[in-house]
Design goal:
heterodimer, A: mainly alpha, disordered C terminus, B: alpha+beta, seven-stranded antiparallel β-sheet, five-stranded antiparallel β-sheet, 17 strands, globular
Amino acid sequence: MAGQARETEFTEYVATRSGWLRKVAYLLCGDWHRADDLVQESVTRLYINWPRAGRMENLDGYARRVLVNIFLAEQRSPWWRRTTRSGTDRELDAAAVGPDLDASLDLRQALATLPPRQRATVVLRYYCDLTVDQAAEAMGCSSGNVKSQTSRGLATLRHTLAALPVATERTP
Amino acid sequence: MTTDEPRDLTEQLIALADQPAPPTALDTAWAIVQGRARLRRRRRAAVGAAAAATVVALAASLLLQAPGGAPAPAVPVVSPSPPMTYLGADPLTTEVRFGWLPDWVGGRTGISYNPPDAEIIGPSDADGHIAARGKGPDAPQILLSLYPAGSEPVERDPGGWPLAEEEAPPVNGKKAYWALPLSDREPNAVMLRWLTPSGRWAEITAHGGRPEDVSRDVLHRVAADVRYGHWDVPLPLRITDLPGVVKVAEARLLRSDPGTDDWSFDLVLRVDGRTLAVTLRPDVPGPSPTPTTPGSYGRYVPLCSVDRGVRVCAQMTEDPPPSLERLGGVPAVLDRIQALGLDDSAWVTDVLR
């Protein structure tokens, strides 16, 4: 069926790529539950635009762009500013945290100190491995803006991580 | 750790993302339900804002049914059209039709009618389209859209990526140009835009198949023979005595494999502002992507019946309003729908009776 074909393709794509999208969302927001919300909204919009999105060669890039746009838009909304908490507020399930995760937790704390656009550039550049130009396209801004946001983001990360003695104390 | 080395940061980000995580709460079925509901809402808004001047229109019978449920007399819409005020009994109409088409199109069974449905990420203004497609997987397709009067095409593709403009030979003496992707994301995408005799912009995009199936020559010839006017689209159902509280909001007919029973018809009904989605599809074996069990969010299981080889399903996307419950709920609506079978020569335009 045409409608069925649309939904089957969409469902297959989400089944295959939602894990990856969820990780990107988690790095953006620092909270798995919030990441689920972001991905849920992203795939809903993806479904709406599926007749065209589904035939794009770089569908992953499109999905990622939708996700980043939703993340940045929510950060701007008054509702989000009222209700959001820092990325370190919700701790991971204690059972899931082993000693080898200390450094990652420090990074999560450090990422949480970044303003949204700096955080997005860091994630897009260093996790998604995008070029400056590709990150600019994904965020809908100039390459120069990505460069400056990246530079500031990295500087903040260095500063924050240097000020986190907890990591070295926790790490055996 | 240090962030001096990008590689270090990349490794740390990967480690952070790969941490044990709670089970995902993602619900794909709910995304589909919500996506459909948003499409319906946007189309309603489009109709209300007179933006329904895209190629495939919703005959807004919700506005038009006379008291007692009888449709008011049809009033033809002439192109170039004012804001649509359809008064007909067919919930799906179109303002353009294909004329000449390449041989790979499977005749009328290869034509889909799809109202506007792009989302907010850089869509063009011409969201709706009719589509002509060939047979089989990765078949070539040509999508035809008509922009609302006064609306200019945007220099972005549906994904929001910028497009470059390249002059094309005039279409019937009117200005035309090719819109080409600047990035390599869709290197084979070709889009032809031209001014129609009414002064509105039209657009053809093509994809799939072999390059020669959707060459520029082919697209230009298709564009030159597009017809403008107003037509009712034959549909695979009749609805009798629809209660006044139930309004038709939108419709679409999709075909994915010409000459086969590979089609679906979606009808959106509104009851006191809440959505009841009706879908007709050939009743064939195989899993259905339509949610058949409640997801983590929902209790909105579709109610289905089979009539003349067609599976008819109706599903609320929200709690049924009391007005619908008083009428007998979703079953009462389903009972008023008569499927007309798989043979599309028996389909009708007087759907609402």
